[in-house]
Amino acid sequence: MDRLRKPTGPVSVSVTVSSSKPKVEVHEHTDAVLACEFRTEKDPNPRIEWKKKGKGVTFVYFNHKFTGSYAGRAEMEGATLTIHSVTQKDSGEYRCEVTAGEDHVNLGEAIVTLDVLVPPHVPSCEVPSSVFVGSGLELLCKDKLSVPPATYRWYKDNKALTATADSPYSVDTNKGTLKFKSVSKTDAGMYRCESSNSAGAPKSCVSQQLKVIEYPWNMTYLITGAAGILALVLFCCICVCVCRHRGCCRKDKKTKSAMSYNPPPPPPIRNIKHYKQTHSFMI
After folding, report:
1. How many domains does the chain have?
2. What residue stretches are annotated with the Ig-like domain (predicted)?
3. pLDDT (average), residues 138-164
């Protein structure tokens, strides 16, 4: 058997780029370290670039300097990028590119995703000051700034509300809504909402009072009377329309009969001499 021949020429090793931590999560206003390691075949001083992908692709580090908002708050060590005091705007996908012009394959890249965590903010709470008994009601709570998105909990008189099959209300912990199909007097009280996520301590809005009131008798009479008057007006309008329609029909019939009347022809004159004597004029 022939032995396998070993290659006599040099083995080509292209530039290789990787990241020991391709997903980075840090809190807002702290430092984010985006690791990038590389190895080249021959080129001792490859070109290093960092780019951020968003709606388009923007440069972070190019031609040995930082660009845009990264100037003055970022630094490089080898190919590893450190961004100081990150904000939510820094979240996104970053690409480390290493170009070794002397290597057989001269371009390599690694992707690093940065998520900047934002603790809960004080949510906006919408609680009406009063509502009538039997009305439907929806209370709203929203924290648009927290990352990851906040979940919500409603409190009445400082007691957490948990919806059950027998509860007169429903709670959506993701949307922050508290819904009542029909409000009763027992639903009156002080309401507040709390937002929370894994990035920090929960935050709550100021408690707001909800009053549940009954319809006053005078308003009930007013609504009933207005409904009765409206019904009477509609009935009168219908009667007038019907009467006008029938009257127009009779008028049309009389007009048509008058137009179709033809007077009878005069009787024939049999005695012409007598006719002339009777109808003669004196001059």
Report:
1. 2
2. 10-113, 120-207
3. 96
